[in-house]
TrEMBL record:
Coiled coil: none
UniProt entry tagged with the keyword Ribosomal protein: yes
Residues in N-acetyltransferase domain copies: 4-164
Assigned GO CC terms: ribosome
Organism: Deinobacterium chartae
The protein's name in its UniProt record: Ribosomal protein S18 acetylase RimI-like enzyme
Keyword annotations: Acyltransferase, Ribonucleoprotein, Ribosomal protein, Transferase
Length: 276
C-alpha cells in the first residue's frame, strides 16, 4: 500500500476541500463539480463537521488524494461523501479512510453511522458490508421535464412555516437529507407554498426546481391535494426540469409524483447503517 497520511479537513480552505472532493469523484457514476459555494451549502445544511472529516494526502508531495466528509447530529454520524482520486483507487485508501472515521465515531460515543451509496456501485457496497454496514432501505429519485401545470392560486409561506408543517405532518425516521434538521438550514432561494392545506418546499433556480418536501395533514390525504399543489407549482415555476433527489424511500410518495408527471430517475441509492 502506498504511503499516505490522514489529516482533519478543517485545516484546509473551502476551495482546497472543494477541489479535493471533486477530484475524488472523477469518473464516478455522478461526478461532483468543483464548486466551493455548493460545498458550503452542504456543510451548513447537512451538519458536516470538518473537525471530524478527513483528508488523505500522499506522502512526499502533500497532494490530497482522498476525502471523507462526516456529518454529525445527535448520537448519529453520517459518511456524507467519500471520494478517492483516480490514481489511488484499489490501493486500500478507501478502507483506511473508512476505518479511521468509524473508529473516531466510536471514540466520540456515537451510536450509529449512516451513509448512502449508489445502487450498482458493488465495490463500495462490498467495502461497507465488510465493516458491518447493513442496507436499511432503497432510495429513489424522480424527474419531470416541463411538467404540466395548472393556473391555481398559491399561497407563498415562510420557510419556517413549511418546516413546522414538515415536522408536524411528515414521516418519521426520514433519511438524513430529508429530515427536518436538514430542511431547517435551507435559505433563499428556497421557497415554500401552501394549497388546500398541502405544503411544499422547493429549491429554485432558472433551469431547474428541486422538490425538497411535500406534506399533507393526515385528515386531508387521499383527496388529490398534493397532486394539485404540484401542478400549481409547475405553472408558477415553469423550469424545464423538475427533480426530486435520489434520497426518497421507495415506499414514500411514488403514486403522487407519478400523477404529477414525474418518472423514477435511473439512479437509485441504498441507505446503509452501522451500529457502533
Amino acid at each position: 500500500m502506498s504511503a499516505f497520511r490522514l489529516e482533519a479537513a478543517h485545516l484546509y480552505s473551502l476551495p482546497q476541500l472543494s477541489s479535493a472532493f471533486a477530484r475524488g469523484f472523477e469518473g464516478y457514476f455522478v461526478p461532483v463539480a468543483d464548486d466551493p459555494q455548493a460545498l458550503s451549502t452542504r456543510l451548513r445544511t447537512e451538519q458536516i463537521d470538518l473537525f471530524s472529516s478527513r483528508v488523505a494526502l500522499a506522502e512526499g508531495d502533500d497532494l490530497p488524494v482522498g476525502t471523507a466528509l462526516i456529518a454529525r447530529r445527535g448520537e448519529a454520524s453520517r459518511l456524507a461523501g467519500m471520494g478517492i482520486a483516480p490514481g489511488w483507487r484499489s490501493r486500500k485508501l478507501g478502507a483506511a479512510l473508512l476505518d479511521c472515521v468509524i473508529a473516531e465515531a466510536r471514540a466520540r460515543g456515537e451510536k450509529r453511522m449512516l451513509l448512502e451509496v449508489i445502487e450498482g456501485n458493488d465495490p463500495a457496497v462490498r467495502l461497507y458490508r465488510s465493516r458491518g454496514f447493513e442496507v436499511t432501505r432503497r432510495l429513489l429519485g424522480y424527474q419531470a421535464e416541463h411538467p404540466a401545470g395548472e393556473d391555481t392560486p398559491l399561497e407563498e409561506i415562510s420557510l419556517e412555516a413549511a418546516l413546522e408543517a414538515v415536522t408536524r405532518w411528515g414521516e418519521r425516521d426520514l433519511p438524513w437529507q430529508l429530515a427536518p434538521a436538514t430542511l431547517a438550514a435551507l435559505t433563499p432561494p428556497a421557497r415554500a407554498y401552501r394549497l388546500e392545506g398541502a405544503v411544499a418546499l422547493l429549491s429554485v433556480s432558472p433551469q431547474s426546481v428541486a422538490l425538497r418536501a411535500l406534506v399533507v395533514p393526515p385528515e386531508l390525504r387521499g383527496q388529490g391535494r398534493a397532486t394539485r399543489l404540484l401542478r400549481a407549482l409547475a405553472f408558477r415555476h415553469a423550469a424545464p426540469v423538475w427533480a426530486v433527489p435520489a434520497i426518497v424511500p421507495e415506499t414514500l410518495g411514488a403514486a403522487t409524483l407519478a400523477r404529477a408527471g414525474f418518472r423514477v430517475y435511473s439512479l437509485s441509492q441504498l441507505e446503509m447503517c452501522l451500529e457502533l
